[in-house]
Amino acid sequence: AIDDAMQFAFFHWGVHAWAVYGIVALVFAYFSFHRGYAGLVSATLVPLLGEKRMNGPLGGTIDVLAIIATVTGVAATLGFGALQINEGLNYLFKVPSNFGMQVIIVIIATFLFTWSAWSGIDKGIKTLSNINMILAFIVLIVLFAVGPTLFTLNNFTNSLGNYIYNFFGMSLR
C-alpha cells in the first residue's frame, strides 16, 4: 500500500503536474516576451478573440474571473494548510487547536506571502526560498539520521520504479 501511495504521489506531483504548469508558463511567456502583451490571461486569448475585444470589457471580465479563481484556490489551500499547521503545532508543542490559532496562522502566512511578493524576486521570494531549502535539508538530514533510513530508501526506489514502469498506463487512465 505504501508503494502504491507513493507511486500516485509521484504521479500527482511529478512530471504530469509540472507539464501542465510548464505549458501555461510557456503560453504566458510567449505572449509577454515575444508579442509584448501584458502578463494577463486575456492577453493569451488575443489570437482567438481579437485584440479589440481583449482590450475591452470582455478582456477585463476574463482577467477578473482569473483573479477570482486564483484567490479562491489560494484561500482554500491556505485554510487547509492552517488546519494542518495548527494540528502539527498542537501535537508537537500542545499549542491550542482552535479557530483563533488558525486565524493567527493565516495572518502570519498572509503577511509572509504579501511581503515576499511586495519586496520582489531578489529579496522576498529569494529569502523565503532559501529558508525553505535550508529547512527541507534539515528535515532530510534528521530523517536520515534518526528515522528508518533503509526502509525510506527502499520505499522510495520501489515507488519510483513502479511509477516509471506504470507511467503510460497511469497517464492514460
TrEMBL record:
Entries under Pfam families matching the protein: BCCT (PF02028)
Keyword flag Transmembrane helix: yes
Membrane topology: Multi-pass membrane protein
Molecular function, one GO term: transmembrane transporter activity
GO cellular component, one term: plasma membrane
Family the UniProt entry places it in: Belongs to the BCCT transporter (TC 2.A.15) family.
Compartment(s) where it occurs, according to its Swiss-Prot or TrEMBL record: Cell membrane
Name of the molecule in the record: Choline transporter
Keywords: Cell membrane, Membrane, Transmembrane, Transmembrane helix, Transport
Species for this entry: Staphylococcus nepalensis
Location, primary (coarse class): membrane
Listed transmembrane segments: 15-33, 62-83, 103-121, 133-153
